[in-house]
Structures are given as C-alpha cells and as structure tokens.
Please model this.
Amino acid sequence: MSESKSAGEIRLIRLDRIEVLNPRDRGSRVFDEIVRNIKAIGLKKPICVTPRFDANGAEKYLLICGEGRLKAYQALGEEEIPALVVEVTDEDAFIMSLAENIARRQHHPLELLSGIRQLVDKGYTFKSIAEKTGLAQSYVKEICNLLRSGEERLIVAVERGAIPINVAVTIAGAGDNDKAVQAALQGAYESGALRGRQLVLARRVIDKRQRLGRAAGRPSTTKHSQVSTTTVIRTYQDEVKRQTALVRKAAFSQQKLLLVVGALRQLLSDENFVNLLRAESLTTMPKYLAERVWPNGSHV
Model:
C-alpha cells in the first residue's frame, strides 16, 4: 500500500458532498458536548477528507476523520465546514480512518477491536498496525491472539483497565475450565497483577464470560432499543444459562453440606471427641447446622 499523500489544503466544503467512510457510534452525551463546544468557540480543528467523483462526474469527498465534528455542524444547521483536503487512495483513506479511530484517547473498546480486526483482515502485520495506531507491538500481538480466540469480553476488560493484558491472555488460555480460570486469577493475585478493586472487577468479568459467552455486545446509545424476536430468544437463552449455573452451584453446595453433616454426626458419636469439645467450651453450633446434625433435638 502506498503511504504517499499530498500535504493538503484547507477548503470550505458543502456538507452534502461529504460521504462518511468509516462510520461509528457515539454516545449522546459525548456528541452533545461536541455540539456545545463548536457552538461556543467554533471549529478548532478542520475535518480531513479526500476528493472523489460520483457517477455524474460531480466532485464529492470521503471523510477520513472528524465524523463527530461533521455531524455537529449538521446538527447546528450549517451548510459548509472547513476541511483539510488530501489526495490519497481508497485504501489509504480507509486505513487512515481506522487508525485515527483506534488512536483516539477516548475510543470505545469495541472500536479498537473492530479497527484492529479490519487491519488484520487486510493483511497488516503486528508491527505495521502498531506503527499506524501508536499502540505497542506486543500489545497488538496479544490483542490479536485474544481476537482469534473470540475473547472480546476480555479485551474490553483490558481496555477499561479491569484486567491486565497478560492476565487476560492467561485466562483465555484456560478456556472454559472453571478450575483453570480460578487458578489463573489466584496466580494473578499472588503475583500482584490483580489487587483490591481490580480483582473484584476481574471476577465480575469472568462471571459474565461464563454466563454470557466470550463475545461482547455494544451497549445501546438510545433510551429504548427495539426488541426483536432474536433479542427475546437470546435474552431467554442467557437467562436459562444463568439459572442453570445457579442450580449447579446450589446442588454443589448441598452436596458439601451433606458431607459436613455426615462428618459431624460421625465425630459427635465419639465420646472422646465430645468430651474434648466440652473441655474447650465448644458446645454450640449454628442453628441451621444443628437442626440437621440433631434432627431429634439432642445436642452435645
């Protein structure tokens, strides 16, 4: 791919001549802030576009970066916007747009995934992706490995600071083996990689990964999202998985309780053990447990 492009020039371009090349979602709060800033102090940085021609030979422009500013101008009722016009190929324009979205300091984690995935699909190496996005090559490599495993939920957690990238990789390597995943968390805690609130957040992520799967869905930016049959079915299936997991946990706890009750009954039938408990003034136990050990009401 050619990296060469002209230095560009600033022009006033009609909004209806600009086509968004790589559209993305934006929360209403963030968008409203962009609109207020532009209304108060004007456009501090022009958008970036590259010229093309439509089927009728009329000049149009592909938006490379500045979608929020473009939509803010539309919301304010403007007809033209200052734009830096550069001459680049379609592929260069697309890659520049992806890289700009990924490199933003406040990008959404799922935008990072989408951008890196598209760059990988186009055949870019870890090194070239790192150069284009400003991310560390090792970080890009680990993200790509997690993407290949379908671990979107873990990647989002990494981007939000809930789990370090090396811990996410270890958890992904454990697959769906709950004991291996818990061992990975324990190892991260003992090594100091997870501490305090971060450990709590990591456990929440793991719980969601077990109940809802590895893929992460983008939160809706509207107050009322449309409900479809697919959404209802997926919600039902997720709830069934959650309830099934709760039943399994309850059954496991019941089995452990039965083992404890059986062991206590056997120990309390030993007069020497009972005398030892009395000598240590250990003659009571929780009511819930006592009712099961002594169903007829007898006690030590």
Notes: The two ends are 83 Å apart (CA to CA).
